[in-house]
Amino acid sequence: MTADPEHPKIPYWHLWTDDDGATHQTRCELTSFDWQSMGGKAAAQWNDHLLAGETNLLFSILPVGFNGDWHENPKPQWIAVLSGRWFVESTDGTRVEMGPGDIAFGGDQNAKEVAQGRIGHKSGTVGDEPCSLMIVQLDPKRWSGARPGAFT
Predict the structure, then answer these.
(1) Number of structural domains, the chain?
(2) Predicted model pTM
(3) The pLDDT value given to residue 150
(4) For the chain, which terminal residue's Cβ has fewer other Cβ atoms within 10 angstroms, N or C?
(5) Residue 147, helix vs strand vs coil
(6) Pairing of strands 10-17, 103-107
(7) Domain holding 135: CATH number?
(8) Is residue 135 part of a domain?
(9) What's residue 15's pLDDT?
(10) What is the DSSP string of 29-64?
(11) Ranges of residues in the chain whose predicted pLDDT is under 50
(12) What's the rounded Cα separation, in Å, for the pair 66 and 59?
Protein backbone atom coordinates (compact mmCIF):
# COMPACT_ATOMS: atom_id res chain seq x y z
CA MET A 1 0.00 0.00 0.00
CA THR A 2 1.33 3.39 -0.94
CA ALA A 3 -0.02 6.41 0.86
CA ASP A 4 -0.84 9.65 -0.89
CA PRO A 5 2.10 11.95 -0.03
CA GLU A 6 -0.28 14.81 0.80
CA HIS A 7 -2.00 14.50 4.15
CA PRO A 8 -5.61 15.62 3.68
CA LYS A 9 -7.23 18.48 5.55
CA ILE A 10 -10.89 19.14 6.28
CA PRO A 11 -11.82 22.76 7.01
CA TYR A 12 -14.41 23.67 9.61
CA TRP A 13 -15.72 26.72 11.46
CA HIS A 14 -15.10 26.80 15.22
CA LEU A 15 -17.52 28.91 17.29
CA TRP A 16 -15.85 29.71 20.61
CA THR A 17 -16.01 32.00 23.63
CA ASP A 18 -13.19 34.28 24.80
CA ASP A 19 -12.33 35.07 28.43
CA ASP A 20 -14.79 38.00 28.45
CA GLY A 21 -17.67 35.81 27.24
CA ALA A 22 -17.84 37.20 23.68
CA THR A 23 -18.13 34.66 20.88
CA HIS A 24 -16.05 34.38 17.73
CA GLN A 25 -15.72 32.09 14.71
CA THR A 26 -12.35 30.83 13.54
CA ARG A 27 -11.63 28.82 10.40
CA CYS A 28 -9.71 25.68 11.44
CA GLU A 29 -8.63 22.39 9.84
CA LEU A 30 -8.71 18.76 10.87
CA THR A 31 -5.24 17.48 9.98
CA SER A 32 -4.44 14.37 12.06
CA PHE A 33 -5.15 11.79 9.38
CA ASP A 34 -3.48 8.36 9.23
CA TRP A 35 -3.38 6.10 6.18
CA GLN A 36 -5.00 2.86 7.37
CA SER A 37 -7.63 0.26 6.73
CA MET A 38 -10.90 0.24 8.65
CA GLY A 39 -10.26 -3.48 9.10
CA GLY A 40 -10.60 -6.81 7.38
CA LYS A 41 -9.93 -6.62 3.64
CA ALA A 42 -10.94 -2.96 3.35
CA ALA A 43 -8.43 -0.87 1.42
CA ALA A 44 -6.48 1.84 3.22
CA GLN A 45 -7.99 5.29 3.49
CA TRP A 46 -7.30 8.50 5.39
CA ASN A 47 -8.80 8.39 8.92
CA ASP A 48 -8.74 10.99 11.69
CA HIS A 49 -9.80 9.33 14.94
CA LEU A 50 -10.82 12.63 16.47
CA LEU A 51 -12.77 11.47 19.51
CA ALA A 52 -13.73 8.38 21.43
CA GLY A 53 -16.39 8.13 24.09
CA GLU A 54 -20.04 8.81 24.69
CA THR A 55 -21.84 11.06 22.20
CA ASN A 56 -25.37 11.86 21.09
CA LEU A 57 -26.26 11.79 17.40
CA LEU A 58 -29.27 13.63 16.05
CA PHE A 59 -30.56 14.90 12.76
CA SER A 60 -32.35 18.23 12.54
CA ILE A 61 -34.33 19.95 9.81
CA LEU A 62 -34.61 23.72 10.06
CA PRO A 63 -37.69 24.97 8.19
CA VAL A 64 -37.57 27.80 5.67
CA GLY A 65 -37.49 31.07 7.60
CA PHE A 66 -36.10 29.44 10.77
CA ASN A 67 -34.69 32.05 13.17
CA GLY A 68 -32.77 30.80 16.19
CA ASP A 69 -32.37 34.05 18.11
CA TRP A 70 -29.37 34.54 20.45
CA HIS A 71 -28.56 31.37 22.40
CA GLU A 72 -25.70 29.04 23.30
CA ASN A 73 -25.24 25.57 21.84
CA PRO A 74 -26.89 23.18 24.32
CA LYS A 75 -23.75 21.00 24.37
CA PRO A 76 -20.42 21.11 22.58
CA GLN A 77 -21.34 19.73 19.16
CA TRP A 78 -20.16 19.04 15.65
CA ILE A 79 -22.67 20.11 13.00
CA ALA A 80 -22.60 18.92 9.37
CA VAL A 81 -24.85 20.46 6.73
CA LEU A 82 -26.50 17.72 4.66
CA SER A 83 -28.74 19.90 2.47
CA GLY A 84 -29.92 23.48 2.25
CA ARG A 85 -28.08 26.46 3.73
CA TRP A 86 -27.89 28.13 7.12
CA PHE A 87 -25.94 30.85 8.89
CA VAL A 88 -24.32 31.27 12.29
CA GLU A 89 -23.58 34.76 13.65
CA SER A 90 -21.33 35.24 16.70
CA THR A 91 -21.49 38.19 19.10
CA ASP A 92 -18.42 39.78 17.47
CA GLY A 93 -20.58 40.30 14.35
CA THR A 94 -19.04 37.53 12.24
CA ARG A 95 -21.69 35.82 10.11
CA VAL A 96 -20.79 32.55 8.39
CA GLU A 97 -23.07 30.90 5.82
CA MET A 98 -22.72 27.16 5.29
CA GLY A 99 -24.09 24.68 2.79
CA PRO A 100 -23.90 20.96 2.00
CA GLY A 101 -20.62 19.42 3.10
CA ASP A 102 -19.67 22.27 5.45
CA ILE A 103 -19.00 21.42 9.08
CA ALA A 104 -18.76 23.51 12.23
CA PHE A 105 -18.04 23.03 15.92
CA GLY A 106 -20.32 24.79 18.41
CA GLY A 107 -18.34 25.48 21.58
CA ASP A 108 -19.91 28.67 22.92
CA GLN A 109 -21.17 27.24 26.23
CA ASN A 110 -19.32 29.84 28.36
CA ALA A 111 -20.76 32.87 26.59
CA LYS A 112 -21.92 35.96 28.47
CA GLU A 113 -24.42 38.59 27.39
CA VAL A 114 -22.44 41.27 25.56
CA ALA A 115 -25.15 43.76 24.57
CA GLN A 116 -28.91 43.94 24.13
CA GLY A 117 -29.56 40.26 24.84
CA ARG A 118 -26.81 39.00 22.54
CA ILE A 119 -25.29 35.84 23.99
CA GLY A 120 -23.64 32.92 22.22
CA HIS A 121 -24.84 33.03 18.63
CA LYS A 122 -27.87 33.27 16.44
CA SER A 123 -28.60 31.05 13.49
CA GLY A 124 -31.14 30.62 10.74
CA THR A 125 -31.88 29.23 7.34
CA VAL A 126 -30.73 30.94 4.15
CA GLY A 127 -32.77 30.71 0.96
CA ASP A 128 -36.02 29.01 0.09
CA GLU A 129 -35.42 25.43 1.22
CA PRO A 130 -35.14 23.75 4.63
CA CYS A 131 -31.67 23.03 6.00
CA SER A 132 -30.90 19.46 7.10
CA LEU A 133 -28.17 19.01 9.71
CA MET A 134 -26.40 16.07 11.34
CA ILE A 135 -25.34 16.93 14.90
CA VAL A 136 -22.94 14.99 17.12
CA GLN A 137 -23.06 16.22 20.71
CA LEU A 138 -20.01 15.68 22.93
CA ASP A 139 -19.43 15.28 26.66
CA PRO A 140 -19.87 18.80 28.08
CA LYS A 141 -17.55 18.12 31.04
CA ARG A 142 -14.66 17.63 28.62
CA TRP A 143 -15.50 19.84 25.63
CA SER A 144 -17.49 22.88 26.86
CA GLY A 145 -15.61 26.02 25.93
CA ALA A 146 -13.16 24.23 23.61
CA ARG A 147 -11.08 26.78 21.71
CA PRO A 148 -9.64 26.64 18.20
CA GLY A 149 -6.84 24.08 18.08
CA ALA A 150 -8.50 21.71 20.56
CA PHE A 151 -8.96 19.08 17.84
CA THR A 152 -5.45 19.02 16.33
Answers:
(1) 1
(2) 0.89
(3) 92
(4) N
(5) coil
(6) parallel
(7) 2.60.120.10
(8) yes
(9) 96
(10) EE---EEEESSTTPPEEEE-----S--EEEEEEEPT
(11) 1, 3
(12) 16
